[in-house]
Amino acid sequence: MNPTIAVLEERVAAMEGGIVGLAVASGMSAITYAIQCICTVGDNIVSTSQLYGGTYNLFAHALPNQGIETHMIANDDFAGFEAEIRTKHGVPLIVYNTVATPFLCRPIEHGAAIVVHSLTKYIGGHGTSIGGIIVDSGQFYWVANKERFPVLNQPDPSYHGVVYTNALGQLSILVAAELRHLETLVPLSTLPIHLYILTGLETLGLRMERHCENAEKLAEYLNHHLKVSWVNYAALADSPYNATCKIITSGKASGILSFGIKVSHKVDSKVAGVQFIDALQMILRLVKI
């Protein structure tokens, strides 16, 4: 165990209110490992349809090739998700908390069993490092549904027949992820990557305050602009997601927003959007956050 990586895992787990964290190579690695440690051929997962491109491709294409199917549900279809699905049906809730970060939202307090992050984004904060992390809440009892989670509850022949839940209790999923994936695939990169991420973590609170403050001012400005047709930012009072934002993130909506440009019926909105982006001088067009 690398002691610096261990410090990173402990700090993020503490911020999320979890019992343990496992640092990996990227946010996509975190998502993939978390699912592959509890799902096998023939299993199904339920996911929001509002996904980043890489995650969508994983769920819609890569996992089905491994025999794991995904059912997509609209992101605001709360009845479809059932907020208490964990206790009602014995199904773990996994939350990707990269954009909110634990500074704004602690999903475990809302019933999440596992939290995953891309450390590359807000936690790292400086665009210098790629990393991810899985945080276990320690509140989901994998042994209560043995037939549903055979990876954790049946002997693993690759490790002398160990049954992870018997040997490790609530730590079973992250140890299984480490043994089954990190030793055969890709762990978190070595120095100085995790040092950069730890440095970013130290200023997370200050940066998130500024991100939220700047994004809200920009959203308010755009919301009253004559050439803007709509603004999607949950912290706005007229947003359909504002009430949920107040409950989950205390009324703060991180640093990402979207908006539409008013066009006449003779102008294609996509063309107008491209023209607007191409005309920007101070703001750069990137495929990352």
Q: Characteristics of this structure?
A:
Aspartate Aminotransferase, domain 2, alpha/beta, two-stranded parallel sheet, 13 helices, single chain, 289 residues, Aspartate Aminotransferase, domain 1, four-stranded mixed sheet, 8 strands, 2 domains
Could you explain how this protein is built, in words?
The protein is α/β, with parallel strands linked by helices and 289 residues long. The chain has two domains: 3-200, Aspartate Aminotransferase, domain 2 (3-Layer(aba) Sandwich); 205-279, Aspartate Aminotransferase, domain 1 (Alpha-Beta Complex), CATH 3.90.1150. Helices cover 41% and strands 13% of the residues. The strands form three sheets. It has a four-stranded mixed β-sheet, with helices on both faces. Strands 2-3 form a two-stranded parallel ribbon. Strand 2 (44-48), helix 3 (53-65) and strand 3 (69-73) form a beta-alpha-beta unit. Helix 1 (3-16) packs parallel to helix 10. It is globular, with a radius of gyration of 21 Å.
Structural class: alpha/beta
* CATH architecture field of the largest domain: 3-Layer(aba) Sandwich
> Proportion of β residues?
5-15%
- SS summary, helix count: 13
The CATH class assignment of the largest domain is Alpha Beta
What topology does this entry show?
Layout lengths: L2 H14 L3 E5 L2 H10 L7 E5 L4 H13 L3 E5 L4 H4 L3 H5 L4 E3 L4 H4 L9 E5 L13 E5 L13 H4 L10 H5 L3 H11 L10 H10 L1 H20 L4 E5 L9 H8 L8 E4 L7 H11 L10
Parallel strand pairs: 2-3, 4-5
Antiparallel strand pairs: 1-6, 5-6, 7-8
Helix pairs in contact: 1-10
